[in-house]
Task: structure prediction
Amino acid sequence: MKPKLLSLCEIPDRAAYNRIAALYDVTVQPIADEGSLAAAIPGYEALIVPFTPQMLVGKQVIDAATDLKLIASSYGGTRQNIADLYALEKGVTIVHTGASRERPMAEYTLALVLSSLLRIHCYHADMTRGGEAWPRMKYPRTRILHNRPVAIVGYGRIGSAIAALFRCFTDRIAVVSRHMTVPEAQNAGLLKMELTEAFAKNEIIILAGGSNAETFHMIGPEQFAAMQENALFVNIARGRMVDQAAAIEAARTKNIFLALDVFENEPLEADSPLRKMDRVLLTPHRANNSIEFEERWQCLAGELECFVRGGVPESALTMERAKAMSES
Result:
């Protein structure tokens, strides 16, 4: 008899569903509150959890799930709705689909950088939103990415994917990471820097790390003050990691560029000064919106197959990895 798996969402990829169903007796039952899940979970050895804005798999559920061996997040993270540290303490394996986000988010980051350096979005806005009809000479000379110094703050899945992609344009890549040693950075062809140093020495700084209590407002006045003339700061991580008031003030008073996909408060306030600055590129938290993100279901099926065979899934969390992930 196959072990039982409860999926709290539909699995739209039929091929992935069939791979999972070959391993488990699958029940699909959308449950959106912790109490109902705690009542339903006994007897299940595996659980698939979709993104929810509220805590769903908390201590109450984990304590009730006496047979539970595996929690699989169908999204990229776990902390936002799974008490992952508590589950790990209980011996439950936790996997996720972060691998399916790497290339899409890296390419989105590249798009933000190229559009900012070349002012593509500015020309488009002028020509379609009532600005100059032919703004050919409106802006100074633009820049290309080739051979420019780039710093990546955070070197997890997304940060490493960004570094790999950006090598097509430049070998001058630095990294800010608490988890990478200087020799490890050198072996990866990277230059390790401290945070403020990275802002001072690079033309492009990309924030790609995890958001938690330790990284709240890690980027603020000191870092923006250190930025070079015409440098670009990109945030595809989380808005709470940046002092947004300091970012606005820097954009007002310095010749720097910002490309922001995330904000301290979302949606971004309608009257935010960021909306009025032509050196600022804004997008509404959509860096993971490509169709390729739906490869997550095949990714998840592969992780479950590895687990059932007795292996260690590639995305399986350790305490250290879990603590470094974003909390929301």
User: Anything to note?
Assistant: The domain at 4-96+292-324 is CATH 3.40.50.720 (Rossmann fold). The chain has 13 helices and twelve strands. The two ends are 37 Å apart (CA to CA).
